[in-house]
Amino acid sequence: MTTPDILPILIMIGRPASGKSEIIDYLQKLGEAERRDKFHLGELDVIDDFPMVWTWFEEDTILSKRLNQPRVHTDEQGYFKYIYQWDLLIERLNLEYDKRRRDNPKLHQTHTVIIEFSRGSQHGGYQRALPHVSGDLLKDAGILYVAVSYEESQRKNRLRFNPARPDSILEHSLPDERLERLYREDDWQALTKNDPDSLQVNSVHVPYVVFENEDDVTSGQIDQLSQRLSMRLGELYRLYSRRPRS
What is the 8-class DSSP label of residue 48? Predict the structure, then answer.
């Protein structure tokens, strides 16, 4: 089987407000030829777990404030009631991907599917999350980890908040106390310390690269963003092309 000239699946992870959504927004605005030639990506189909989480928040608000019924998903402070809900979100991402492949068996001839989520050590981190990603998804995936410190995540999280659009992909935000509790600690470095290029997840070798964004090139620095992203995705495509076949 020949390697496609685009990455079939890009798993994009990192702390909240690290720049993931801004990267996707930038890529979505490019022409098809530039996105393919410069970044090894096809047309983009984005599957993000934030809209799923936000639906849970909205449903609990309706239940508690309008129907006078118990909250189903979260407590009054907005924390999940059960830790397995984090696993459920990954399984929902798998399901959405499966539905895309069902409806378009030739999906990856034209499209790159982007899977986006964040995980902190408090609820199991990426060590817990990634094994829940399906094998069908992992075998055609590469990972782009957007790296920022907790302090930078907090700064950007505060900066982007728009109270008029709390459900917006680009303008949503977490309260400081929730961000600190859920995302201060991140297990990415511990997870990748033994291999600079690849993770083995459920016996699948998944190549990865790190996009350093402590200097926030995703906020209006288009030339720097383009150059850095091209270098990192170019490296990821190279690793993907040479990955061991499981």
Answer: E
144 close to 24: Cβ distance less than 8 angstroms: no
- For residue 226, give Cα distances in angstroms to 4, 44, 108, 218: 22, 17, 23, 9
Q: How far apart are CA 244 and CA 246, in angstroms?
A: 6
* Per-residue pLDDT reduced to its tens digit, 121-146: 999 999 999 999 999 999 999 999 99
> Hey, where are the domains in the chain?
9-241
Amino acid (one-letter) located at 122: Q
Mean pLDDT over all residues of the chain?
A: 95
CA dihedral of 187, 190, 196, 202, whole degrees rounded to 10:
-70
Give CA torsion, residues 119, 246, 103, 39, to 10 deg.
70
Interatomic CA distance for residues 236 and 69, integer angstroms = 48
CATH number of 9-241: 3.40.50.300
pTM of structure? 0.95
CA separation for the pair 10, 12 (Å, rounded): 6
Three-class SS of residue 159? helix
Q: In this structure, which amino acid lies at residue 10?
A: L
